Predict the structure.
Amino acid sequence: MIGVLYEHPQWFVPLFGELDRRGLPYRHILADALRYDPGAAAAPYGLVVNRMSPSAYLRGHTRAIFTAQHYLAHLERLGVPVINGAAAYRLELSKARQLDLLAALGLPAPATRVVNDLGQVQAAADELDFPLILKPNVGGSGALMQRFQSPAELADAGASGALDELLGIDGTALVQEYHPPRGSAIVRVEVLDGQFLYAIRIHNDPNQGFNLCPADICQTPNTGVADASFDLCPADGLPAKTARQIEAVHPPAWVVEAVLRIATIGGLDLGGVEYLESERDGRLYFYDINALSNFVTDAPNVVGLDPFIRLGDFLQQRWLLVADGVARAA
């Protein structure tokens, strides 16, 4: 049996449909309603697909984020193969860890300071060049990010209490130099099973917020707060998304190679890495690693392939390996 660990009620309908089409045996594992025996000697699953999102806290499911960590460690102890396992999930949950990985690989990233006290924000800002962007360490649909053009603007925000939610659910935040992307567009490179899948350029008006997920189903009201209104993330009636232009691109070879290295070292079986070309200095910067990266809407027309079929192929191959191993053991 394949277990699919997830929390969002709608994001993975296409994945379940692909598993159904192939006749693969699977079961839903709801991360916000988990129950397991840490002393168990075996798991009821031969393969687990981790599709947990750090944005669960925006839907009132903060508990799912941390219990999922414990559950993945439990599966790891039992030797259950997991797609995007504990290492990938740890990376997903920390923008600070992502920046550490980029630094370890010698890849360009925006200058950043990590803080766990609002009293450290000003000192961090003093070490950087404005404009700055402040973001919680545990990300989620671009929520709670704030951009500041000047020291005075940042000081006013601190005095008014506008930064009070910045530290997020793990008490950690990033103070980072903001690089306006050239042409108001960023690039997301998707990988699967150690191979380049596709890349897209996403055009965005910064005034629409920082949620750049290319899937319609991911678009949320641009309130900038954790709120019950994020529960279902409906795909329709969202003019901000329909106005966004998305197109297939071919990144430089060194960028694709870098993204594949990120995926390998980070333990990502699938995911997306984002980069931008800066209007400030013309340089390319990697800035976000998404272990849970929802595929672009209308992918066959946008990028010339159906990523859910590719993902289905990958999962079916992994499941057949598991099933074959079980048969041989018997």
